[in-house]
Design brief:
Blueprint lengths: L8 H69 L1 E9 L11 E10 L5 E8 L3 E2 L2 E5 L13 E2 L3 E4 L3 E6 L3 E2 L8 E6 L5 E5 L4 E3 L7
Antiparallel strand pairs: 1-2, 2-8, 2-9, 3-4, 3-7, 3-10, 5-6, 5-8, 10-11, 11-12
């Protein structure tokens, strides 16, 4: 075995050191890439999770809005209006006239009272008379109960009212069809027409 060539030792050591450094750098870069990959995967999972959460929250909001809307409509939908055109008014001598009028029965079938109850005929006419009405009566032409003032401040649960219009000529009575206006227990103003079209009222409908 020949003598050690010390002149090659620094080169050998440098080569080994360079190899070690290169291997360490490679492992470091590999580890960093793996960490970056894991972080990107974690971020992607979090993003998917947040998207799912947003979608779930939006669905919950939609459901809650639907439930709130249904609750808001529940009482108003249980207020009924029955109307009938009546004719044969009489003058001061008891002679039958050709004029007709409306008789409108308003029934509160909900479990809570309604307020500010009035019936308008056409666009401007209010009822000429308002009476309490027995909710069990079937015939809208029957005699009414005690007279009350209009608009009616409060109509309790399972109670009814009879609104009678003024008289118009038979040819024009249809131009003054009745529309019911009332305020529910939550303070929402509603209107209900003869086509059973229930609408939330505007500020102009306030009592």
């Amino acid at each position: 075995m020949g003598p050690l060539q010390w002149g090659d030792v620094p080169t050998w050591v440098a080569s080994v050191f360079a190899g070690v450094v290169a291997a360490f750098a490679y492992q470091t870069i590999k580890s960093q890439r793996e960490q970056i990959g894991e972080q990107q995967e974690f971020i992607a999972e979090q993003t998917r999770f947040m998207d799912d959460q947003r979608q779930n929250l939006e669905m919950e909001r939609v459901e809650l809005r639907a439930v709130a809307e249904e609750r808001r409509l529940t009482q108003a939908r249980r207020v009924r209006m029955h109307h009938v055109k009546a004719g044969g008014g009489t003058d001061g001598q008891g002679v039958t006239t050709p004029h007709d009028h409306w008789r409108v029965i308003v029934v509160n079938e909900s479990d809570a009272p309604i307020r500010q109850v009035e019936v308008r005929f056409g666009t401007v006419y209010l009822a000429s008379e308002v009476h309490e009405w027995n909710i069990r009566r079937v015939d809208p032409m029957g005699p009414p109960d005690e007279r009350t003032m209009a608009p009616v401040p409060l109509l309790g649960s399972q109670r009814a009212l009879l609104f009678t219009s003024q008289q118009w000529p038979s040819a024009s009575v249809h131009n003054n069809r009745p529309v019911l206006h009332f305020t529910d227990v939550n303070g929402v103003r509603w209107s209900l027409d003869t086509k059973v079209d229930l609408q939330e009222g505007s500020g102009d409908d306030a009592w």
